Structure formats: C-alpha cells, structure tokens
Amino acid sequence: MKHLRLLFDNFTLALLGVIALATLLPCEGQGAVVFGWLTNLAIGLLFFLHGAKLSREAVAAGAGHWRLHLLVFGCTFVMFPLLGMLFKPLFLPLVGDELYLGVLYLCALPATVQSAIAFTSLARGNIPAAICSAAASSLLGIVLTPLLVMVLMGVQGDTGSNLDAVLKIVLQLLVPFVAGQLARRWIGAWVARNARWLKTVDQGSILLVVYTAFSDAVISGLWQSVPLVRLLGLALVCCVLLAVVLWCTQLLGKRLGFNVEDRITILFAGSKKSMATGVPMAQVLFAGGAIGAMILPLMLFHQIQLMVCAVLAQRYAAREEVSA
C-alpha cells in the first residue's frame, strides 16, 4: 500500500480526475471566458505565494556555492534543451510533431523548488545549496524559459509579438512574485504557519489551469490527435530523458570533484522540471488547444521524476548503512 501511495499520491489522482472531467465536461462559451479569468487570477496568486514563501535568509545561506549553482543551471537550461534537440530522431517518431514540441517545452522549464529541496533533505545532501539553486532556477526561468521556447520552437506567444509575450510573462508571473517578496515582511510568518493549508491553494491553482487548458485541447480534438500508442511513446521518451539526465548529473558531479552531499544536490536540483511554473507559463505562452499537448509531457515527466527520485533519495539516505 505504501508503494501505491508513492506512485499515486492525492495530487496525482486529482490531476487524473481533472483531465477526465475536462474530457467529459469541457468548459465552453461563456463558461470558458469565466474560467479564463479565474485561471489568470489563480496564476497571479500562485506566484505571489511563491514569492511570499521564499526565505531570503535561507537562499543567502547557500548562495556562495557558485560552482554548484552554475552546474545546476547548466543542466537545467543548457543540457536539457540540447538533449531535447539531440534526441529528435528518436523522440519524434515515438510521439509525433505536437507532443515533441511539448517535450521541447518541458526541456526549457526551470527546476522544481519544493521537491528538489525535499529529496535533497531526505537524501542528506547540501540543503542550503539546494534551496538557493532551486529558488534561483525558478526566478531565472521566468526570463529564460520564454527565450528558450522562442529559440527551440519559434513560438511568439498568443499576442503575436515577442515583446508582448515577454510583457505578459512579466505582468502575470514576475510582478506577483516580486509583490510576494515585498509582502513577506508582513505576511511571511502567517504564510509559514499556514503552509499546509496554502499548499492546497498552490495545487488548486494548478488543477484549475490544467482543467482550462485541457478543456480547450479536448474541444480542439486533442484525444483524436493523440492515440494510445503516442501516449505510450511519450512515457518512454520521458523515461529515457530522465535516465540520461540523472546519469549526466551524477557523472558531472563526480568528475568536477564535488563531495557526496553536493553531488546529491546537483542530482536532485539539476534533473527536475517544475509543473508549478510550467503549467501557468504555458497558459501565457501558448494559445487555445495547443496548451494541452504542451503540458501533457510535463505532467507525465513530473510523475515519473517523483517516483524515480523518491527511490534514489531513500537509497542515498541509507548510504551509511550500506557502507557499514
């Protein structure tokens, strides 16, 4: 039962339920307009809370480890996109054009914050460095991810110009984040006390975006254009991509002379991709039914990375027992 809980936690089940709901009862017409406004408000609230939760003191504690941070950022924003393009001859026949673009979008995203830190903590890695790297990656992603998307796919956003797309990212993501950081002085303690309750706001925002995105996609014929064989191919692509990245981060950590704790941080911070950032950002960058295909690879990769990294973290946590 514990293993089943690891594979299918409550949030994963909720995501599957929302996809099923969007498939059977997609929002249309005036309902879609209302859900669009709600989604925009939810995205702003999500990034405001991210800013309010981020401790500047904790980030400062790990900020001096610049070699580690450069390696993590290189894995996140350079190695991932290069692998996505390098493996195109393998990935494209398995998933088709539409989902392959979603894989490229996945490769352009920043690292997770919560899970990277949680797994590093469980594995007894360098926690302050993990906090700094994950938080900085999330911030950099607000700027770098749209630029990488434009380079990898030539996407200009649904407004028709690069400048408008960047402006929309700034207004919808960066401004609420900065507002949250500024408000942390007054609400930081309240946010910390209510972290468990506020987690439902985070997850609820993501579920709302997923429902709106998949409703658009279903109406545009997503499931007609993505047969079961493509979904199986996408699962294989996500497994291959994650396996190569995990191998590369482990190898680079060893070759560059980092100690075990730092190598653990590099492994977990450099191999993750953030659904909390990726789903709302897709709502800003892509138009209409295209969003569903763009976030489908991310949702599948997210679950696979959690399952694999949970096992790896437990093995690292037990390393003294193994060596004894």
TrEMBL record:
Transmembrane segments: 7-25, 31-49, 70-87, 99-119, 131-153, 165-183, 204-223, 229-248, 281-301
Keywords for the protein's UniProt record, in alphabetical order: Membrane, Transmembrane, Transmembrane helix
GO cellular component terms, A-Z: plasma membrane
Pfam families documented for this protein: SBF_like
Residues making up the signal peptide according to the UniProt record: none
Protein name: Sodium/bile acid cotransporter 7
